[in-house]
Fold this sequence. Notes:
9 helices, disordered C terminus, seven-stranded parallel sheet, 341 residues, alpha/beta, Rossmann fold
Amino acid sequence: MRFFLDLLLLLPLLLIFTLESLLKLFIPKKRKSVTGEIVLITGAGHGLGRLTAFEFAKLKCKLVLWDINKHGLEETADECKRLGSKAHAFVVDCSDREDIYSSAKKVKAEVGDVSILVNNAGVVYTSDLFATQDPQIEKTFEVNILAHFWTTKAFLPAMMKNNHGHIVTVASAAGHAGIPFLLAYCSSKFAAVGFHKALTEELAALKRTGVKTTCLCPNFINTGFIKNPSTSLGPLLEPEEVVNRLINGILTEQKMIFIPSSINFLTVLESLYKNRNFKLAKYNEGLSSGSSCRVPVMLKHFILLTLPCFLRNHPHSSARHFSARKPGTNICCTYKSTTGT
């Protein structure tokens, strides 16, 4: 009996998300032009930040690239110039508020007012709470969320004055689901999602509708820093497919981008079953044994295996997975969006 009640609740949601995705597939939103825009990307020396810079270079934007890694930063800038874009590289420590503010002043003086800000830099340490050192927790929040406040405070005023601009928050699927042994990281990404949502509402309240916001929430991204991946919430994504979705999301002014798209459905599902102890992070290899979720196991697998087929741009090609269930040596992805998240 419980199975049929759950099915009655879930099938309408499945239908809604499927129809929504099909509608977007057949009636795509017009992409805006960003030619000549000044785009600042943090964590541009590697991974997602670097690839995002390349795509904006192809769109003939003027690029401002920030990273703590000078060598990687210069490589990114050189390639952007080869692609025909003007690129300005600044070595910036995104964990240092004063460095962010002083670098922002240099950017305004030497390049101009930033009109698209991509807060991409991130760090991640994998260990349990007690093995995570206090400075590591502080660094995680300094880079993954506090830097978003400082960069936005520095560059948003000009956007608001012109009622034109775009703030992009690179968050994570981990900003919607708790993951063991990533306590600091998940907390910082929950904060990043909240930052995006609150900023979006604040801009609307201030009637600055010309300043757009986008939040990217992908599963973990394969940038070479996550070792020995295993099964978890979903596929370990390739950075190229994430960047394609991100750029399209910015150009079509999407507020939230979930990769894979099924994460959006699962977050709604978790909310629906919050009183039944449904856990989004229970979608792993232990699903069939000892799960506290009241949704039948067969139905869970049905959702996981069939829903992505109906949703747009689901990355089936990524067969690798990541899990932080077993703590080991800390992995610090310093000031580079190695997870995208």
